Fold each of these.
Amino acid sequence: MARTKTATGATESVGDYIRRQREIANISLRKMAEQSGVSAAVLREIESGLRNPSRTIIQSIAGVLRLSAETLQLQAGVLDPRDAGDSEVEREIRRDPELTERQRDILLELYQTFCAVNRTRR
């Protein structure tokens, strides 16, 4: 189960985070289930730390909570915080199992160079 450190130094699971955000938004578990299309039983398991949510479930929950899916994915440990500032293309390059680490580095460097050149042309 993915756990992250909070500002106070305590650890918090993605389920704790989702529950806290749901309570802040004043949304009942039943209402969250209706709006997200995820059953209340599954939401309960996630919030109690018995289940890790899939990317699809994270996206559904994020929509109801009006958070970015990326925020919840970082909290859930689906995204590496080092990649949070990366574009979708860069994240996919880093995940591609067909590339070696060196090939990934070279491809990322080329991609970033092309983007920088194109920014200066605008």
Amino acid sequence: MDFFLDPREKETVNLVFYESSVTKIKFVSELISSYKVPIFYIDFDLMFSGYYESGLISKIPDIRIFRPDRNNLLEIISEIIKKTSLDTSIIILDSLNNLYSILNDEPNSGRLVNSLLMFLSYNAKFSKSKVFIASLSEKKENEWVLFPTKRHILEIENMNRFYIEEKSEKLQIQKL
């Protein structure tokens, strides 16, 4: 986790690929406990919320969890952009797969998702914030795609890419 805390690290957006939701939760739990700035957690799949509310993840004082749906998504994104525009913070979007699912019926949903991500990352850059985007993914023909939809993942220039997995009950983080 030291890499994410390194003040010399200039990249704002961190794309985190995983194949196991439990591994993702362990990663996120370690990540949020390592920062001392406000954390905005956008929980599309509600897994983190469940673990957090049940006490399986230690409570931290400066986290705000959002549970968006189709009706309140843009309002939540707007609120987060306002709150993160001036102060350094962490934004965790969990998960890209479920963001696409929420917007699946919208015309040009892929463009809308990409625009939201670009807007979040652009805003975060000015406040020296970090954005973590988790996605249940697999590598197909040398490209990362969302599982199971096989939708291609937007890769922004100057974006960190990580693959997390668990081996012998230890979290392994590989920078791609």
Amino acid sequence: MNCCATDASFAESGSEVVKAVSGSREGPEAVIQRCENCGGQSRPVSRKTVLLMLKPEWLEQAITGTYRFCSARDCPVVYFEEQDSHRFTTDDLRVRVGVKASSDPIPLCYCFGFAESHIRDEISLTGTTTIPERISTLIREGLCSCESRNPSGVCCLGEVNKAVGTLQQASSDDPRKP
């Protein structure tokens, strides 16, 4: 199954990818459910994704329920149940959550293993990066499994492209560059 959009317009924005790829229930008529911990916006995530990310000792608590993903960088909550009080934090997961990490390694692409440092290094060496194109090629070949490997349950390409923009801007602003 190809879980990711390959259209460049979808790759630019994580929120568009969520709607286009995951069949998000969120739309104009949807009620925005905020994280009770930080008040930030959240998005639906499958219980399967939650279960695949949790450490074994937390699995029983997530067997039922409907979950949401909080992407706020400074909030330790990753998943919370819509109708109940179950919450899971970064410490409860088996993987590092890139959107919540502030120091290396900062994972960006969970399917193919790319981290922010890979993009930073390539930009530093060549002035650009081919990583988004490489990921897109692999997606077109049907090799991604973001719904199972990415803690947010959606395609990583939006986060990859956002990181590329930020890192390229930082590189061009670097006074050490000629």
